[in-house]
Write a structure and sequence with these properties.
Arginase, Chain A; eight-stranded parallel beta sheet
Length: 308
């Protein structure tokens, strides 16, 4: 595909992800970028329903070649912007079903989902597991999101991975969660994730082992089967990414966060997401949205390398 910069400057045009074509024709498509503007599952700050729009706008700065991964990501992959799913706001259980049904239309390609709060990961896993069976998970997040419920609500952004295990969508023995930090209601917040079978690497440990060893552990854990990569923007320190629903101080900066993503080469990812970007809390320079767009770009680079 010709570089859109040859035809129109980046300050112009309709805001699609990385200025890729907006279409729902999937023949020959490697990646379908899908927006999920949903934040009914947020327990603190809302606003992530505007995340897909903001990430797309910030992604106009992305160019064809990624020197960090040494791959021409936007040339080697046929990427389209599928648009947004239609959702019933205000009802998390219904919305998860609606999102899963619509994402089922794109799983012949690799979906890259722009959220949205983390509730939507359950919908993504339903759609992917219907095609590929139980998946491994790589999660970069300040929270494990394995609660059972919150004030009686079983479908919100703190429960998607417990629900996914209960529904047989995830194989915890092939899954790894990393980056957890911050205050807890009790030790059970993390103990429960381990009891479900997940390997958990708190950020204090992740910082010590570094990206290379993390990548090795993730590959060992995931094995050769199909996996899903979920990235919550609150994995990053709020000094670098303030626009998120539940910020936790003491995390990695932007360069470190991208290194952890790039370290995940060689895993068979069948789907990706970047969630919890809440633009109302961003600075005037849109630094969180810019960072989210670049995280998504690094994910695409991993896929491009795996397709070689």
């Amino acid at each position: 595909m010709a570089d859109p910069a040859d035809a129109i400057p980046r300050i112009s045009g309709i805001r699609t992800f990385a200025r890729r074509e907006h279409t729902r024709e999937l023949a020959g498509v490697d990646v379908a970028v899908v927006g999920v503007p949903f934040d009914t599952g947020a327990s603190y700050r809302t606003g992530a329903r505007f995340g897909p729009e903001a990430i797309r706008s910030a992604s106009t700065l992305l160019r064809e070649y990624d020197p960090a991964l040494e791959v021409a990501t936007l040339e080697e992959l046929r990427i389209i912007d599928w648009g947004d799913v239609a959702i019933s706001p205000g009802n998390s259980g219904r919305a998860v079903g609606e999102i899963a049904e619509q994402l089922g239309q794109v799983v012949g390609s690799v979906p890259l989902v722009l959220g949205g709060d983390h509730t939507i990961a359950l919908a993504e896993l339903r759609a992917l597991a219907a095609a590929y069976g139980s998946l491994g998970l790589v999660l970069l997040d300040a929270h494990a999101d394995t609660w059972d419920s919150y004030r009686g609500e079983r479908y919100f952004h703190g429960t998607p991975f417990r629900r996914a295990v209960e529904e047989g969508l995830l194989d915890p023995s092939r899954s790894i969660m990393a980056g957890m930090r911050g205050s807890l209601y009790s030790p059970a917040d993390l103990v429960d994730a381990r009891e479900l079978g997940f390997e958990l690497i708190p950020y204090s440990e992740l910082r010590q082992i570094g990206p290379d060893r993390f990548g090795e552990r993730a590959r060992e854990r995931a094995g050769e089967g199909a996996s899903f990569f979920s990235f919550d923007i609150d994995f990053i320190d709020p000094a670098a990414a303030p626009a998120t629903g539940t910020p936790e101080v003491g995390g990695p900066d932007s360069a470190e966060a991208l290194d952890y993503v790039r370290a995940l080469r060689g895993i068979d990812f069948r789907g990706f997401d970047i969630v919890e970007v809440s633009p109302p809390y961003d600075g005037p320079g849109q630094q969180t949205s810019l960072l989210a767009a670049n995280v998504a770009y690094a994910m695409l680079g991993l896929l491009a390398l795996s397709r070689r």
